[in-house]
Write a structure and sequence with these properties.
The chain is mainly beta. It folds into three domains: about 110 residues, Immunoglobulin-like; about 150 residues, Sandwich (Immunoglobulin-like), CATH 2.60.40; about 120 residues, Collagen-binding surface protein Cna, B-type domain (Immunoglobulin-like), CATH 2.60.40. The chain is about 10% helix and about 45% strand. It has three helices and 31 strands. Strands 1, 2, 3, 4, 5, 6, 7, 8 and 9 form a nine-stranded mixed β-sheet that branches. Strand 2 and strand 3 form a beta hairpin. The longest helix is centred in the N-terminal third of the chain and has 27 residues.
Length: about 450
Amino acid sequence: MKKYTKLMGILLALVMLIALVPMTAMADTPTYPPDTDAPGTMTLVIIKRVYGLDETKEYKFNFKYYQIKDRDDLEPVENGVNGEFSITAKWDGIEGIHLGSYTIENLPQYTWIAIEEIDPVIPEGYRLSAPDIETIYTEPYASEKRFIDNNYKKRTECDIVISKAVEGNNANANDEFEFEITFYLPKEEQEPPDMSSINNAAPMNVPPAIGKAYPRIYKTLADGSIYYFEDEDYDAFPVDGRDKVTGRFKLKHGESLTILNAAAKNKPITVKELDSKGYLTTVNGIMGTQWKEEEPVADTIRVNFINTKESLPLSESLSVEKRWSDGNDKHMRESVTVQLYRNGEPYSLTMFGRVIDDGRVELSAANRWQHTWSGLDTGYNWTVAELNVPKGYVSTVNYYGGSAIITNTAVSAGLPQTGDAQMPYIGAGLVLAAMAIVVIIAGKKRN
């Protein structure tokens, strides 16, 4: 028994000795820091959060990412890491915002990356707070989330763009036309604003619907260059009381005036040409020298003035004939009223304080839908137009020497009557043909 006990002790000692040998070898092995040059990439998850937009719609946002030197130097590194991606943000009923995400994989380690939104989405009627450029430093074998937020608010103000063009073979591109505009400042103004200070606003290259709504005014010249208003220019836009602005300015052919972030929505905007200089004036396709938006709702209100002056053969008389495209016996009215215009303004002759001729004539089957004015003064442009065009018809005027033919053409149901100032852009398309009123009729006297 003692023999076996001794043998077991020897075997146990050998086993322990064998086990200690590798442990001693491991203890003698030196420890080194991790190899930071070992290849490793990073995964970056971009989460787009959108606040304030219509929950019934989805919105697509485009981004680009590129390598930069460091957090403070956003200049892209030449031949550095770069790419583009898109995120569609959908309404999340639990979070109460629009959400979307995108994953960028295999970004190189120890690199500064910038992420920037391309052409920020600004839906009609909204303003976007200034977006930031996101920067991140990549770590090897890491995965990280970054949130990019867009915050929107409803716009209470709109922009106004007034443009001028002259046409016709007797038009002069150097003629300068004076305008008057009235509008109201947004309700958010707590104090009567100083219009002379709005030229100190944010840089002009910032889109008007991004960031704070700084009011500003500038003129675009015919060659495309920009003239920024100076203090003396803003003096021509005084504020009456708390919020009503009345301004005057001048435009030539090919020029436009832009008023940004200054006019309140849902309050009247009126633009008036003060002197047509012998031209026939149309505004947004409708004959006249004034345009008024009673309750503007669009983000941009465009008012396009076109002045026409033709050098046509002179005549001492002007004959007008009324026609219906569906036949003179199938129309809806028994008579129509035609107005004579002198230099684009309704003609009227007054003597001894009484109007003896208002320039209007009634055409009907009784006079074969025709009339002739004789003895017209050659110093003026004489044109005609039908008043109160029947609903469902489009009126056009064509001139043939000393004759004018007014034609009413039936249109499909649902189209608005021409000249409806409350629907300017639709109505403008219906009356473009009527804007060909360009005849000059000569004569020294008029019966």
